[in-house]
Amino acid sequence: MASNVYDVIVVGAGLSGLQAALDIQQAGLKCLVLEARDRVGGKTLSLRSNISGQAVLKSELGAAWINDTNQSSMWKLAQELGLNTYQQNIIGDVVVQDTDGSLIKFQYGDVPKYPSVEDTASCIAIRDLVHEASVSQSPSIFLDGPHRQYLDTISFETYLREAKVTAKGFATAQVWTHAMVGCDPSEVSALYFLEYCAAGGGLMTMRGDGKHGGQYLRVREGTSAFAEGMAQKLIAGSLKLQSPVVSITQAASNGSVSVTTRSADTRTFQARRVIISVPTPVYKTIAFSPQLPPAKTAVTNRTRYGFYTKYNVTFRRPFWLDKNHCGLAQSFIGPISVIRDTSLDDGKTYCLTCFMGGKFGRKWAAQDAEGKKRSVLKQVADIFADGTDISDLFVEAFESPWMEEEYSGWGCPCPVTPPGVLAEAWDAMCAPFGNLHFVGTELSRVWRGYMEGAVRSGSSGAAETLLGLKATNPKL
């Protein structure tokens, strides 16, 4: 077999692509991974500093948490790679910044008590309604039927209005969409948001920072260590970085696929099957021949990111602990929608991760770098330090790059769909096309948008690819 001819080519070296490649390699087939960036990992990105020759985690700009129960693939991978984990801090008070700037404090696991009993009841009711809709099996949100069709005709905002939430209940739900998918409730279909929650085991599980929750365990070595460790398992020479794919051509005569990259020198590789492991908005940057089917193009052209940025701020000391805050907060006025304590477990690196999403995030992003920092420090001080000046405690800040990053599709964490797309188009979005297969966390029905979803999708795509190869060559 010629050196540039492969059984399978994987486009993209994020977690889904790397997992697919490892499964293909495990099956004894020749596999090539093409990655546009100069690194592996996709939307995992750990900032590290060198101390005494050792890489020490400073901050997570992408995916940051796993758990050891319902994220079994990531937990298994952590064990295989010898990575160390520690728990997200939930000891102390959580804070809600209300619409008038006042603060409501409560213990993690409890609920905020607003001045209006009606508001408190509305927040609990909408939480329970969304959670139940996302975990119910009668009918399941994933099961085709009139309920699924209807939920896709309305926005999540309309869903909330139909539930007759109070303004406080609406603001609570808006925090969820801002922090989870970077959207205002009006920008995403009710079906998409409920299905997104269902993929993670329900709203309460996805929002949870304790055992079983989506934000339970941190990784001491940084989440980039997952992809780096996976890449180490690939056969030498089977990963090519800085090789953005510009065209994919399926030959009508023999079904072979040509993949052309743009790098220092343009190269074309041949394969029997290709696995596409890039976000759907990135499909537009690749020239497919023949063109992708209209059903697939119609939906992928309508998937879109909200506005979602992580702004990580490090401080000289964890002043939020002084008043028994656990570092978790949510705001109804922004610019930050959610704050989490992401201090390292080294006893000297103290960090708050600020999630900027939706309309709050877009307004914040219109400022220059100094304005962004100043507005964040003011809000953090208002929430955790009684409004006192904390600028002398500031060390540095890191802003996630995804909104400006072509190979992520100019966004994070996961493309969403507006009303009228998902119910009719899910199968088309996931379906193979000829000898092309499609994977990625957004195509997973388990922990969509998370590392777990990426790895599971990669394995499913590899299995589908292997079945296709065996159908054409039973000896494989």
Automatic annotation (TrEMBL):
InterPro entries: Amino_oxidase (IPR002937), FAD/NAD-bd_sf (IPR036188), Flavin_amine_oxidase (IPR001613), Flavin_MAO (IPR050703)
Lineage: Eukaryota, Fungi, Dikarya, Ascomycota, Pezizomycotina
Chain sites annotated for binding substrate: F355
Segments passing through the bilayer: none
Name of the protein in question: Amine oxidase
SUPFAM superfamilies: FAD-linked reductases, C-terminal domain, FAD/NAD(P)-binding domain
One Pfam assignment: Amino_oxidase
Top-rank EC class of the record's enzyme: oxidoreductase
Keyword Oxidoreductase among record annotations: yes
Molecular functions per Gene Ontology: monoamine oxidase activity
Record domain Amine oxidase: where: 15-464
Cofactor: FAD
Entry keyword annotation includes DNA-binding: no
Catalytic activity: a secondary aliphatic amine + O2 + H2O = a primary amine + an aldehyde + H2O2
Keywords: FAD, Flavoprotein, Oxidoreductase
Superkingdom classification of source: Eukaryota
UniProt similarity note: Belongs to the flavin monoamine oxidase family.
EC number: 1.4.3.-
Residues annotated for FAD binding in this entry: S16, E35, A36, V245, E442
